[in-house]
């Protein structure tokens, strides 16, 4: 749940509600305001702001204010000209639809990039680097789009196990080796079977990396490392999961690339040599996609040099 949603729905006292209503109305305008100034504007007291923070499990008003402003800054960035849930309308032309879907997917990637922090990404990379293999857990369409990550990682000899049977997820987690790690992909952060899976993994002392939304959710609280993705789509009221899918694929591509880069030259040579051997029969008449040793010189076609 977002901080703004918690401010709207929490059972505050009347004086506290005056402050939360003021904060939700002013948003970024409270950035340079002191507790005294907010209290005076709402005819309350500075101590009331501290009580609100404590009720929302923040150590104090400064921490709540900082988190609220960070969230608002994120929500005001990107997606100004496109709706993640309804990116096109019934009167759009086919080329208009094509353009809008391209814009949506680019926006989702930029949005997710803005949420990546160096420390969180570094922590995830080190967890994966030290692990003997990765167990990846997701459900529904999220499960489908993780398979490319599994494929890429296998090409650099990094094993990724994906449990495709939802009823077997917890069983699979209970058998995971302590030397492994796990990645949980959950947009809502409240998928019960995935959170039960995390608890099982944690019981076996297996580090968990969560890919989830920007809010305070169960998956994020249970995980050892959290990577946030673009959070713009509703759970149901949408044409498709265009934005979420693009964000998840991008973040998994980033993880793969960072692991690849840990031993760049070896991994690159491994991929090239393996592909050469396995895909030797692949051929194209198009020079732009041919491998260098097979590209012809255009001047050779008429016998000139």
From TrEMBL:
Q: One short Pfam family name for this protein? A: SIS
Q: Which Gene Ontology BP annotations are present?
A: carbohydrate derivative metabolic process
Instruction: Keyword check for Transcription, yes or no.
Output: yes
Query: Could you tell me which residue ranges the SIS domain spans?
Result: 124-265
Q: Which UniProt keywords apply?
A: DNA-binding, Isomerase, Transcription, Transcription regulation
Stretches assigned to the HTH rpiR-type domain: 1-75
Annotated GO MF terms: carbohydrate derivative binding; DNA binding; DNA-binding transcription factor activity; isomerase activity
Establish whether keyword Lipoprotein is in the entry.
no
Identify the Gene3D superfamilies for this entry.
Glucose-6-phosphate isomerase like protein, domain 1, Winged helix-like DNA-binding domain superfamily/Winged helix DNA-binding domain
> How is this protein named in the record?
Sugar isomerase (Sis)
| Organism the protein comes from | Trichococcus palustris
